[in-house]
Structure formats: structure tokens, C-alpha cells
Amino acid sequence: MTLRAFFLLLSITATGYAAAPISRLPFTYVIDYTPLQESDSDFRRQFLQAAPTLFHPGPELRYLGRFGFGGMVTPYRNMPYATYETQVKEYLDFLRAQGVRWVTPYLCNQTISGNEVHRYGVWEVYDRWPDFAFLGLGEKPEDPILWMQREPSGHLHYNYKRKCFLERHQDDLQIRYAPCPNHPDWRNLCNAEARNAGRIGFDGYFIDNNIIHCYCAACEQRFQSYLRAKYSADELFRAFATRDYRAITLYHEGDLRWWARSIDGFIPWLESKYPQPEWPIHFDAATSLQEVNVDAAGGGMLYGETEQFVAERILSVASPTTFESLRLANPALQTPIGRLRWAETQMFWSQSIGDMLAAMRDAGRETHADFFLMPNWGVFQRIDGAIGRAEDGKDVRRWRRGADWQMFEEDYATGLVAPGVVLDYDLELRYAFSCGIRALLLPYTLNDPALEEVHHAETAASGGSVFVTTFRYPQVREKYRRFFETNADLYEGYSSAGRVALAFFFDQYYYLNIDHFRQVYALNRFLADQQIPFDLIHEDCLEPGPLSRYQAIILPNVVFLSDGQIAALKAYVGQGGTLISIGETATRDLYCRPRDAAVFNDRIKPGKHRRHFSDLHQALPHRGIDLDDGLRAVRKLKAGGKSVAYQRLAELDDALHFKRFQLKGPLTDCIAEALGGDPHLMDPMQASGLRHTLWRKQQDRRVWTVVHLVNKNVRLDVEDGLKRLKTVTNLKVALPAEPGRRRALAVYRTPDQETAFPLISSYHKGQVVVTVPTLSYYGVIQIEWM
Fold this sequence. Notes:
Layout: H1 3-12, H2 14-18, E1 29-31, H3 41-44, E2 54-56, H4 81-97, E3 102-103, E4 106-108, E5 112-115, E6 120-121, H5 122-126, H6 164-167, E7 175-177, H7 184-200, E8 204-208, H8 217-230, H9 233-240, H10 256-261, H11 266-273, H12 279-283, H13 291-296, H14 299-314, H15 323-328, H16 336-364, E9 372-375, H17 383-388, H18 396-399, E10 405-410, E11 415-418, E12 421-423, H19 426-434, E13 438-443, H20 449-460, E14 466-469, H21 474-486, E15 495-496, E16 500-503, H22 514-529, E17 534-537, H23 544-547, E18 552-556, H24 563-574, E19 578-582, H25 597-603, E20 610-613, H26 616-619, H27 627-637, H28 642-656, H29 666-675, E21 690-699, E22 702-711, E23 728-736, E24 744-749, E25 757-759, E26 761-764, E27 767-775, E28 778-785
Parallel strand pairs: 1-2, 1-14, 2-3, 4-8, 8-9, 10-13, 13-14, 16-17, 16-18, 18-19, 19-20
Antiparallel strand pairs: 5-6, 5-7, 11-12, 15-21, 21-22, 22-28, 23-27, 24-25, 24-28, 26-27
Helix pairs in contact: 7-16, 20-21, 27-28
């Protein structure tokens, strides 16, 4: 298919294009957890300058949040409700008068705080349940201690340390429990909270943590329903060699944390690692460690401890081990049925979070028609952040039924760690958009006005994603809010115009195909550095409509594929699309059973439209180490503050050299052949340190193309003084010409100028070329085709 034919197809075929995710208007977002802010006049003054579009306060702004429901118990929980309601409604009126559109308090769906013995915190509400009937909580349920997540032993499961509030020097009485998202009483209470939020005037909730690692009776019951919905009796037999659904239970045998703890010597190993004076904090024990004390350490701590124990005592290695090698050392995961049972256990947990979010949002919309939820993931910028949280129910695609935005809390800023080596949030922004939602980026990193600008720019360029900040740098926040709201035509109603798709199939994680992630992260950097417009696609995109939008699809080490998925890819190639596979492809089915590698080649024969690289190094023969390996090494060094971490990364680059992808590789040539011409939007060398996104919108006969340009040339490792941006001048941008249109009216807009700047365009070999005189942090080219 030629370049011209491809765009002609887009212009006359509405089906595939209409199915694409559509961009939204970005906005400004401030987070602040100052307590009692609703009655604090000093705090309110911060809204008088550059009020954000969305304000995100802490759990204390919720009445039940003050008692420890979804937050920490507070000393002002016994305020009369009438006083609370009056103060909060007046506060909301004040915020909206300053220009705040949405207010979304904090709620953690895996936190109940208090003490069941001392009847403190949530038990103060439970023991006086009729006194809170006006909140619509329903009939008195069973005791909250019975709502909690459970270990396979039946003991309480904790996600954080049982004594985490004591460790943080916050409260020596308060315990942080982990309620189960599948327990009906906890779900009912969270749904009631959502209804009350809409009723009092909140617009939604930020939902923190979203962690489930539970083997309770409620989970087992829902797991049976999950299996029956997914597998017919015959399919169950093919997958698990039984037609008895009850024989397939949550598979704790495959759980690394449980397996490691079942090995003789684990508790003595812990006792020798931690000095006894530290035991009360870590294990809620003083003299000896029992199994229940190990539970009290919490899943987060045990995640790292069990990995280290397996590496030392089972694999007998001191050097770094891979995520999958630690888990596949478990005999329970060394058969297809065992691996599939553990995969289904984790997929069920992820779906459980999605179900809970969807139910909460529906409940909120009973009292507020536009009520929305913003669940938190954590780190996604690093591979170990993405896969490390997935064992606890984290899955963007399975959450999206109840999520409007997806928050990512990142460790690092976006910018340069060395010339040509870019840290960014590109992958998570693209993945969220591909799933039909938008990302919220909250980086815990350096405070600097230059980085504030880059973060606003990068998220705004990504289809409606949002940078989450504090009240610092109001001048930057005000500038970007003004630019967004006065230039909505640059953001709303566009579809991605990338003609290349990179398959990011998150389910490969569940089957322990982590090499897929390693390749996706590297390929995402390669395509971004090469300035090739592209999208990420997920498993649900393996349908004729979504696939038809692309001229080339890259399939990186996708080991696990069903026959139906192979058939979809075969049909895509048969229609003229180019499939580029790297590494192992379809050598196992989705039952984890081996499949002969020749099967995929027999069904989709190698040729002009089916290219294959045996490994990533063949496709990208670039010298050096991967940036993700550098991030992992620096984390293990525990280098100190963020500025020190960036300096260590720069030193690693000096010593070992991070891969740079500004020079083309064999994969570039494959893409060029598939597209029928130069795939680059810009010269990768001139555009080093830049990121872009490419969009298209059609309304009747009018067609627009928009290019968002983001300049990340800010060195992060420079410690002294404010960060400085290196501007780019005379930047040439070459866009595919719109078929059937003779003229391109191009303008350039930036947050630093009030009016659009006209650009001179010229046609050259099926492309329209424009030159941007100066790119500071952020600029947008808009072309209307005439």
C-alpha cells in the first residue's frame, strides 16, 4: 500500500478511523494534602493566583476519611457532620469562584485505619453504626476485621507494614489494614462514599493503591464466576484437564511470596537479616518471629525479601537475577497448567480492581452525572515498576471500565541525563491513550520551573494527558492553562495519525514473558528517538478495524498468542499490511502450551509483508547498555537524592555508554519500505532530545493535521542553579501530504505568544515541509488542508 493510498483509505473509510481513541483538552492539576484546608484562610490564598482546573485534596476532606476509611485516622474526626458539611460546601463554592472546575479528594481502596482491639478509627463508626445512618451506609455489616485481605493461611494480609504509621512517627496505636476489594461489605461502603461525594459536590475521587493480593472466601467465590464467564466446560478441560470449575482455585502455589515463605529457613534468614530491636517496627514482634509476624511485614516488604531469599538460597547467585528466573524456579510454575493457573489468578485480581472501580463510578453517578475516578498505578517509567506491581492487581486495560484517567507516580523527571539520552514518560502516555483513557503524571523529582514547563508540555502533547503538580510555579501553571483553554482546537477531537504500531501486550506479563517488556521499552525509545510517528496497540486491537489504521506493525517477542490472534495478524498481512516480528513469536498458546515455531511461519509466510529479526540486537544494532538497566543499577546503589541519581546516570553513560537511537538501524529500513518513503517526521540528529505526536481530525470536508513538539533538552545532572533549556532553531518538519488536497495552510502556536505564527509550507515527494524558526519548551504546528 502506497503512502497516498493509505491516506485515501483513511479519508473514505470511517470504520477503522472512528474506532480510534479521540484526543481531549488537557488541563492543569494541583495536589495538596494540607489538613483542615477548608477552614484555613492562609491556604485559600494559594487559589487567588493561577487556580488549577482540577484540585486534588487529601482524605480528610471526606467525612468518613477522617475516621480512617480509605485514609489515616485524624484527630478532628468527631466534628459534627452539620459543621463539616457547611464548611466543605462553602469551600467548594470558594474554589469554583476562583476557577477550579473539579475537586477530587483522596480515597485509598485498600486502606482501613484504626485498631480492632482498641475499637479505634473505623471501629468508632462501626460500633455506632446507627448514628451514621444519614450517610446511606445501609444495614450494619459484619465487623470490619472480616473485610480484610487474607493470606492462603487465613491470616490477615497487609500491603504496607502493619505498623507503618508507627514507623513514620505518625501514630503508635493506628494500624493500616488492607480491605479486600472483593468483599461485599467493603464494596458497599466505598459505593456509599461515592454517592456521598457526588451529593456534597465533589466531582470524583482519586483512588490510591488499587492493590489486591488476596485469597479470602469472597475472592474464591468471585474467581469461580470469573472462570465460568471466561471458559466453557470444554475450554476448561483443554486448559486445565478438568471440567470441574471448583477444582480450579486461586493458585497460591505459584505465588513467589508464599512459595519462598514455605521453604525451610526463611524465617531464620529474616531473623538474621534484621536486628532484633527493629522487629517491633517491621514485624510487630519483640522476641521471636512466627508466621503471623512475617505477615505483618506487608506485601511490599516481603516482595523484595522473598526475591532475595530465592536468589540466595534456591538459585545460589549473588549477581542480579531476572524477574522471571526467580519465579520460574518455583516447581509449581514449571508446567503449562501451573503457569496458567497463576496467570489466571493475577488476571482475576486485576479484573477485580476494575470491577470495583466501575461499581464505585456508577454509584457516584447516581448523585453526580459526570462523576469520575482516577486510579493510581505507581511507577511505569521503569520496567520493574510496570511488572513489579502487576502481581498485585495492576492492569491499565482491565481497569479502564471504571477509570477516566490513570495516574502514574514516577521516580524521575523528563529531560536529558546525557547528550542524546532522554528520560521521558512517552511509553505510559501512549499506552494509556491506546487503552482509551488518559494519563496523569505525578513525578517525585526535582523542583524547577524549566522541568515544570517540560512536564506540562509532554503530557499536553499526548492526547489529553495531564501533569500533576503542587502550588509551586503559579506563573507556569497559569500560562499553560491559558494556552489550553484558548487553543482547544489544537487538542479536541483528533485521532493519532501514526502509521506504525508497536504491540504492547501487557498480558505477556502474566505468562512471565518479560522479554516482551524489555523489547517494548527499547523499541519505544528507538521509535521516539528516530522521530517516527507511531502508536502502541494492545490485545484488543487485534481486530480488522484497528489494525487497518497501520501500514506496519512491530511484534516484539510475543511468545503467547491464540490461534484467533494469529488469524487476525494473517488477515492484516493479507490486506497489504507489513508485520515485523522480533524474537520468539507465537511459540506458545494462551493455555501456556508449546507450539512449534514453524506454525506461525506456515500461517504467515515470510516475504515482503512479513519481516523477521531473530533478536532485538539484529533489529537495533546500537552500541551500549539500555537506559532501563542504568535506572535499575542506580536504584540499587541508593545514591541519595534525585539530583545525585541523575549524576550517577551521567557517570554510567561516561563509563558504559547508554544506547542512543538517533542513528537508524535495520528496523528503520523495514519501516521505510512498508511506508513507501522516509518514515522520519524530523531529522533524528537535528531533533535529538525532542519528542513529538502527530494527529489528524476531519469534520465534513475540512481536514487538519497537528504536530505537537516537545523539547526535552534540559540536563538533569547539573546540580547548581536553575535548569536551562537548549532551544532548537530552524527545525524542519516533514508531514505526509493529505491526499486530494492542493494547499497546506500552516500556523505555529506556543504558550509564549498570544497569536499564531504563519509557517511557509512546501510540497516535496508526497510530503509537506515546514520550518519552525525556534522551539522553546513546546510548540504546535497546525495545518489545514485546502
